[in-house]
Write a structure and sequence with these properties.
Layout (H helix, E strand, L loop, with lengths): L5 E4 L6 E9 L3 H6 L2 E2 L13 E6 L5 E10 L10 E8 L1 H13 L3 E2 L4 H8 L5 H12 L3 H11 L2 H25 L10 H19 L2 H9 L1 E6 L6 H9 L17 E7 L2 E7 L9 H16 L2 E7 L16 E7 L15 E2 L8 H12 L15 H22 L4 H19 L5 H8 L7
């Protein structure tokens, strides 16, 4: 399939000032030249220089006017000859131009096929290819910076360093196995163990960034809960900066889950407003309360909001292990009930806006693990990387145990070989067509 030429509309469907169509493959310039009419043939265009011309089946029946840029292999995104056509961003005109490209012999690109070709032609490793999607989907400056770092190869470099370390270990042991008469020392016990455990420590350091990666890509699932009329919906509206939820003094107004995403100091927060927790005879409200408990069970962080002017409520919701909680006392503009005296909480007023900077700081510290020190968020693995690294960790541990138990070098080599394969999957240093299909299938058409 790499021998054919693919085409796609690379900008989102809809009306806009401009649209971009892409072709990639050996006939890209030839096919584009059949419908782009300029003072000189497309085949003679200077690479990376945009040319103005008419677009259509011939000069008399033009569809549009636009710009065409040629990128010659291997100095292109895909590593192949690549052409980009910029035209006016109408739905009909872009579709008609694509139809002309297909009629001239191009094939409609599959989702993610441009980036897949970039990977197959050695322009990107798999971590960089995945970073393209992270870059497109970034919702905060922090997520954008992390995606750019990964696109530049920061994560890939660390994975390659880890792979090299395991590969050198394996090569040394296999040389000892294959050439027993060459007096090759499989390393002294302490030295081998040090190198083996050093690789395991690097795996652990990378695994420790899995939580960061999930936060950057999906956001911190933050559930706002409490009794009715304590200000849950008012808190949501204040954090969002607009009236998203209905606010009423009538208990039971919020009956369903409301979810929105905000950017809090670089961290995406998926705010979930829930129904007030209380006993109710209303069937619909009871369903809303049941959904509140479901959301709390799935939360990364909960904001337990209470009315500071009322006594401390009786009974607490039991949180799942690992779920962070911030106690928020609303209505700080009113006199605080004496039962709250000495309670550690963030005191706010949804009516006046007081205390929201302190609330943002408390949330940020919970995301950072309770400490104010910033971490390095520019390396953050995703779920696929995590799965591969966990398997690699298992194999490295088994190799270490085989060494401790005094097993032969063949057993250690077998575990290292499996670890090497798991690590190689992260950057694509294995022959796994199904894996590639799943990864690149997440991309939009034209990317």
């Amino acid at each position: 399939m790499l021998n054919d030429t693919i085409a796609a509309i690379s900008t989102p469907l809809g009306e806009g000032a401009l649209a971009v169509l892409r072709l990639s493959g050996p006939r890209a310039a030839e096919i584009a030249g059949a419908l782009f009419h300029a003072p000189k043939p497309v085949a003679e265009f200077t690479p990376r220089l945009a040319y103005f011309g008419a677009i259509g089946g011939d000069r008399e029946s033009k569809l549009d006017e636009g710009l065409l840029t040629v990128f010659r292999a291997p100095a292109s995104y895909t590593g192949e000859d690549l052409v980009e056509i910029s035209c006016h961003g109408g739905v009909l005109v872009t579709r008609r131009i694509l139809e002309l490209l297909l009629r001239q012999g191009a094939r409609a690109a599959e989702p993610g096929e441009f980036t897949q070709r970039a990977f197959l032609n050695g322009k990107l490793d798999l971590t960089q290819a995945e970073a393209v999607m992270d870059l497109i989907g970034a919702q905060t400056d922090l997520a954008l910076r992390a995606a750019n770092e990964q696109l530049e190869g920061r994560l890939g470099t660390r994975i390659q360093g880890l792979r090299t370390a395991v590969l050198e270990l394996l090569a040394h042991i296999e040389a000892y196995i294959d050439f027993p008469d060459e007096d090759i020392d499989p390393d002294t016990g302490d030295a081998l163990r040090t190198r083996l455990r050093g690789a395991g420590d690097e795996v652990d350091r990378l695994l420790a960034t899995a939580g960061q990666g999930r936060i950057l890509r999906e956001g911190v699932r933050t559930v706002i809960y409490g009794a009715p009329n304590v200000g849950k919906s008012s808190l949501l509206n204040r954090l969002l900066g607009f009236e998203r939820a209905i606010v009423s003094a009538r208990p039971g107004t919020t009956r369903d889950v409301i979810e929105e995403v905000i950017n809090l100091r670089g961290f995406p927060l998926r705010l979930v407003d829930t129904a007030g927790l209380r006993e109710s005879d209303d069937e619909i409200e009871r369903e809303g309360i049941a959904r509140t408990h479901q959301q709390i069970d799935r939360a990364d962080l909960v904001l337990h909001i209470c009315d500071a002017s009322l006594p401390v409520p009786v009974g607490q919701v039991k949180l799942a292990p690992g779920v962070a909680e911030v106690l928020v006392l609303n209505k700080a503009d009113l006199s605080e009930d004496e039962t709250w005296q000495g309670t550690t909480a963030v005191r706010i007023s949804c009516a006046t806006g007081a205390g929201f900077d302190e609330l943002a700081t408390a949330i940020e510290q919970q995301i950072l693990g309770g400490g104010a020190a910033q971490r390095d968020w520019t390396v953050a693995i995703n779920a696929r990387h995590q799965s591969c690294l966990e398997r690699a960790r298992t194999f490295l541990t088994a190799a270490d145990q085989a060494f401790t138990d005094g097993l032969s070098a063949e057993f250690i080599a077998e575990e290292l070989r499996a670890a090497l394969g798991a690590i190689g999957e992260i950057v694509g240093k294995v022959d796994t067509e199904d894996l590639l299909g799943v990864i690149f299938g997440r991309f939009c058409i034209g990317k």
